[in-house]
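Practice problem 4.
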């Protein structure tokens, strides 16, 4: 099933260039893409793995290899010529961790701020020392027991009276 999804996605990417919509007919590459021939196509599907590659006359190239390992793990690449005449290339891996695509034209996240890196390092040191912060407020961490003015939530249940049903317990 996953192989079908991957193959369908790649077919959609390559066929998007051949869209018959009139607003795309003004693109510089449109006329060339409509009549582009397939120059090469290879496919090898086995019980637990697959691979394919193809190349079209207008410069679209793609290849992918995958294997079954608790799902499908795949890696591949594709390239195409943009309307600006530049060749765009993307390499990717896909598996349980999702899809990680890389390409010179793809945006990259900004660097992690130094304060966040320090906090992550401190968290790792604390965990290694057996200090686990479960996110709940612990008065002992901040100077001891709660004072008399500190709000301490209490569970209040309605009292059952004779002839009435028992209170809900959550």
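Answer key:
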């Amino acid at each position: 099933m996953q192989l079908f999804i991957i193959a369908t996605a790649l077919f959609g990417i390559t066929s998007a260039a051949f869209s018959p919509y009139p607003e795309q007919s003004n693109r510089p590459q449109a006329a060339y893409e409509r009549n582009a021939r397939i120059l090469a196509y290879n496919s090898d599907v086995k019980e637990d793995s697959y691979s394919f590659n193809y190349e079209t006359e207008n410069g679209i190239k793609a290849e992918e290899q995958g294997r079954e390992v608790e799902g499908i793990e795949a890696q591949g690449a594709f390239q195409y010529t943009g309307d600006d005449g530049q060749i765009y290339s993307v390499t990717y891996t896909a598996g349980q961790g999702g899809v990680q695509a890389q390409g010179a034209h793809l945006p990259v996240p900004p660097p992690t701020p130094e304060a966040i890196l320090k906090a992550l390092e401190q968290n790792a040191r604390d965990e290694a020392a057996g200090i686990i912060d479960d996110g709940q407020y612990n008065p002992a961490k901040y100077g001891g027991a709660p004072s008399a003015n500190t709000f301490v939530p209490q569970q209040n249940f309605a009292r059952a009276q004779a002839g009435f049903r028992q209170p809900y317990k959550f």
